[in-house]
Structure formats: C-alpha cells, structure tokens
Amino acid sequence: MIEGMACVFCAIAAGEIPATVVHETDDVVAFRDLKPVAPVHVLVIPRQHYRDVRDLAADPATMVAVLQAVDVVAASEGLDEGFRVVFNTGGQGGQEVDHVHAHVIGGRQMQWPPG
Ligand code: AMP
Asked: Which among 41, 50, 76, 81 could disulfide-bond with 33, CB atoms 3.0 to 4.6 Å apart, if both were Cys?
C-alpha cells in the first residue's frame, strides 16, 4: 500500500470523503472538526502525509504553509481575541489520526492547563 492511502485525512485532502473545507491551497486543507470542542474548531493539514509534527518538521516549507493557513483561518473565523493551536502527538499526546493536523480552537475562553 502506498503510504497514507488508507488515511482518513488523505481522503479528505483528495476530496474522496466529504468535509466542510474553510480554506485550501496547493499544499494544505483546513476543514471543520466533526466533533468541535469550541465554537470554532478547524483542523489544518498538509496534503502530503506526515504522521505527526515531528515528521512535518523535516519539511520546513510545508510546516510554514500549515502555520500560514492557521493564520488565514484565525482571521476568517474572527478569532481576534485569541485562540489555541494544538498538535496532539503520539499516544500520550492524545493523537487519534496519524496524519499531522493543527487544531485551531477558539470562540470561547481557553483554560490552562489542558486536561
Ligand atoms: P487527534 O485526537 O488530535 O488525532 O484529533 C483528531 C480529530 O479529528 C478529532 O478532533 C476528530 O473529531 C477529528 N476527525 C476525525 N475524523 C474526521 C472527519 N472525517 N472530519 C472532520 N474531523 C474529523
């Protein structure tokens, strides 16, 4: 199997399964999380399959593209009062989908520390 072909976020990036896309470029896709934890909950992914943020760090141009998409989403979603960006990583980090994604979460007061 080609790496990433069975991956749900690869399928979203390819348009093979539906998602509510709020922003996309040649390199990244941003779409609403199916189970939002806040009024705004958008996931930003690179189209290319990387397992997690550590693997993404090996591709600086794509890493920057992800962060630039976070900025676009923050602006378009009106998160002027602030927001949180989370890369859950690995089992203890709570990562369930093994295709790196930035959670962009906002629209309410965030708590610290997270659970
Ligand atoms: P994580 O636990 O960091 O891997 O987060 C995975 C996130 O992906 C969860 O918040 C899920 O609700 C979300 N998710 C899983 N499948 C889909 C999907 N098909 N469309 C949108 N969000 C999804």
From this structure: 41
